[in-house]
Write a sequence for this structure.
């Protein structure tokens, strides 16, 4: 892909050099307006992109026992049961896979303090949610005339 782009840029560079006399100063403004870098600079930049260690992150979510682990095993591990499969949920916690030269596993467990903080955040979130729902319900009732004394028609 990058080779094709470099070839096209090289051809464009050749055209501008070949017809420089015909284009004159327009050649320079064409290059400046379109921000055409030298082929060498572009090639160096594209090679750096290819060599750069980029991280692709993909999230897989779904119902319990929907086959998420089986899908990942099939796609990444040629069907070998690297991620566990069982009658009960085995990968209910966040599971992160990353590339490495050697097959290895690293497991991080939550500490009691981590679990307490998560519970605290969950309770705070639940209270905030309840307050927002209550507030929205009150505003809805006000907008729709509910909760006001009814007016008699004359």
């Amino acid at each position: 892909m990058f080779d094709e782009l470099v070839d096209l840029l090289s051809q464009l560079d050749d055209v501008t050099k070949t017809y420089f006399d015909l284009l004159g100063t327009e050649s320079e403004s064409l290059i400046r307006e379109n921000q055409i870098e030298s082929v060498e600079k572009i090639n160096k930049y594209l090679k750096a992109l290819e060599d750069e260690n980029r991280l692709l992150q993909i999230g897989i979510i779904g119902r319990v026992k929907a086959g998420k682990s089986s899908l990942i095993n099939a796609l990444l591990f040629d069907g070998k049961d690297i991620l566990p499969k069982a009658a009960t949920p085995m990968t209910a916690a966040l599971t992160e896979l990353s590339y490495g030269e050697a097959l290895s596993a690293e497991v991080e467990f939550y500490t009691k303090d981590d679990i307490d903080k998560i519970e605290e955040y969950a309770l705070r979130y639940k209270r905030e949610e309840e307050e927002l729902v209550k507030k929205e319900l009150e505003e809805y009732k006000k907008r729709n005339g509910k909760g006001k004394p009814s007016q008699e028609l004359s």
